[in-house]
Records
---
Amino acid sequence: MLCNAYLLEGAMSGRTLLLGEVAHIVGQSTDPRSPRGGDPLDKALRDEADNLMLLCAQQHMEIDAKAALDAFTVEWLRRAKQEHEDRVRYLTALGPEKATTVVRMVGSVHGNAVELSRETAADAVTAGRRFPLYLESYNRHGVEIDLRHTPGEQAAAAWDAEAAAEASRHYYRQATTVIEDAVRHRLRPGIERESVQHVSVFGFARLPLLVYLGSLLDDTVPTDIYQRHRYEQSWAWPAESGPVTDFTAHQVQAGRDESEAVVVVNVSGVIAPCEIPQGLSALRRYEVTPAGAQTGPDILQCRASLRQLEETLRLFLARLEREAKSLRRLHVLPAVPLSAAVALGRVHHPQVHPQLVIYERLAGSYMPTLEVGRVPG
């Protein structure tokens, strides 16, 4: 119960096994050797359900270990039991339409990674009034994409511009293969079988890879994208009652080349005109910015703000589809929160919209690192 382990199936054999053990909060016996047996609870009540917990063997051994009795007190165990039972009652009250398949992608950002466990994602999903659906074909962990050991991650952050560019090309080839394999072989079969009706996405990785992940997600399946909130150290979206930020997309520079353009997405920070690569400086340029608000890393305070940004990006691409029919490549310089990068990929339609060329700041300047979609032919 405490570790949320599944206690009806063997991890190695995959067979149905009863792995749970019944543990007493107050020891069954009043003998001094019985863990917490000295509590005044009536002996007749010690085998009642209120004094029992279902645990895995390791947790059972740990709470009863003599060296840990000061940590696992009667009060602590009763509170843990109550919290777990409250959570189970809440989840079982939700209908099947509230189920969601969790997609977690974890990589390194500037050499750092964060904790994004199955339990972390489950807590955030539950706070959003859904419950995680872990199908057997996904090994009960949803769709997990781990990029932390992908060859080239550290080298791609090299300070030398030429070395960084070469390392990035190699790293992104490896990483996109891992992402595509996970989506194609683990998520899409569930969608095709109609066992996946809703998806919840958690991503902590370099921005171009988050855009790529978003581009592979099926736009016909309702999807929630989650954001890591730095100050709360939580992935759960705060209450929707907070301020909602609107966004705008506008053209800031004309250009003669009808086949290529640039969009600078200034949301979590600002990319100054002087930072735009020389080869892009003469192209038609657009900007996506907050409307009446300052850019900042915590600008997406609530889920509604992310939806507003997603809708702004969707309308912007639709505008290009109408007004710039000769446009074949759109160079994207993003200063966005991680969730917004996934949203950008989701709104892009590879058969309708121009190819996206995603840039990343490497060795002090912005370089093209990843292409999303194909150049319209």
---
Amino acid sequence: MRALRRLLLVEDDPDIRAVAGLALETVGGFEVLLCASGAEALAAAEAFAPDLVLLDVMMPAMDGPATLAALRELPALADTPAAFLTAKVQPGEVARLKGLGARGVIAKPFDPMTLAEQVRALWAT
């Protein structure tokens, strides 16, 4: 398994995006590309070539599941692992998101100091 270095984070909330990006870069040591929407992620993802995609579930226009489906249509990202960030972590919802092809779900609000550990744990599954 290759090393986890590059993360694509898609989050519409600017505060959450900033905190998560800072936590993943500073605490986790990752190279992170921050995108504010699914459309922005689709435009930048192939050139960035992430090792893992982190998607907010609820976003305007194109939500996380729709963004994941669109990313899967890009040959370079068809097999890139993905995980969702959401406050809805009931077992049925987590199962639904995993059924869409996600490695797992990270609950919001997350602890910025342990977010990188959570991402690494998903990568190892």
---
Amino acid sequence: MRTSRLEAFSDGVLAIIITIMVLELKPPSGHQLSDLVHTSGVGLLTYLLSFVYVGIYWNNHHHMFHLVRTIRGSVLWANLGLLFFLSLFPFTTVWVEESHFARTPVVVYGLNLLAAGVAYVILQTVIIRQQGPDSPLHEAVGNDLKGKISTAGNVLGVLSALLIPHIGATVAMVCYACVAVFWVVPDRRVDRVVQQHEV
């Protein structure tokens, strides 16, 4: 089957996830900039981080399916697995915000990021297995060093929150943010292969 319905459904789910997250933001209780910082400052920061992560997944998902022509049922299920973990972002984001970066919510948030990353790798792997070792996606992914580094960064964040007293949660959020920045730069591997196959 073609990929158009899967892509349209995924785009819709990601748009809803972003909408839910922004609706969770609390408006300031007053009319001064200080009111914005005190009432919504933490929420804006956590929303921004989660928004960037959703944007990264949307971007990479979009690029990946440029290299996929047809899919089978297992790809649909793997894609649903990814969307499931992404759909938990509003919940874990709000928990981090309302707890003001308490250790347990920060750990759960990191585990959510890790689970989404693993689900993306599973989706990628299922597609490559269906297309075969000579598939354009396999060529683009290669040994996926970028994916391995980002997984290590999120694991480091979770461990920091668990093991470092007092500042562990802050260190963890910095690790999660660094991974996001690492992925904000477009993945040129996929871009290069897409351009080759469009020629």
---
Amino acid sequence: MRSDNRFGDLEVTDPKAMRALAHPVRLAILERLQRYGPATATQLSPYVGATPSVASWHLRHLEGFGLVRDAVDGGTDRRARRWEAVARGFRFEVPEDEDGRAAARLLAGEMFARTADLPLRWLSEAESSLEQEWVARAVANNTRVVVSADELAALKDAMEELLAPYVTRDAAERPPDSRGVRVLLYALPEAADHVDDDSGEVV
């Protein structure tokens, strides 16, 4: 794990592993295990859009790339094999070769698709049931900055440093009135020939 990986994420570097993850059922399985802990294929089935046998096949595929493993408390009954995620999250960087970039693009696209409707779902399913203090503290921010690549890297590092203590702390250390909050963060550099809306100049 690199020193700048403050969340303790599993770092996916193999393009084959990226392609393996770029599947809606596999991403759903991994997300479910990371959020709720160990489970069998049968327990995962209703939440990932697959039969137990298909879920089991996908779990073995993920295992082959080191993304899931037998749960520590899995027991010895192979008919009820319990699985767990290897890490609380994963991250990947875009490789320099074209095959690697294509694999990363495929995975990024699937991840974007999984979260694209989250803000609208929050508004329609959760917002109306929240206490006012939580509604007032929800954040929807769409900000444009003009920065260098090094400055963007520094921004990313600073934001991860701010979030890391909340991501990695043990459940026993959380305040009694705490609850889960989904933080979505996109930093999407514009194309080099993008027209600057503020000045009319090409940046």
